[in-house]
Amino acid sequence: MEKLLGRLLLAAGCFAILCVLGWTSTENPSVALHANPLKASHEQDQRISAFNYYVRNGN
């Protein structure tokens, strides 16, 4: 019985932490979604992709 109560308390605590994190998160997470600078700079991504293409093909 004590193990079940302990597991229920642990699950309730984890759920409470997730709820608090959800309530305190920003409403516009676009900054976090664009953390990769290569996705923001299309020209730089093309230059690096072209360099990788030439290195792989030995040209």
From TrEMBL:
Domain of life: Bacteria
Protein name stated in the entry: Uncharacterized protein
Organism: Paenibacillus tianmuensis
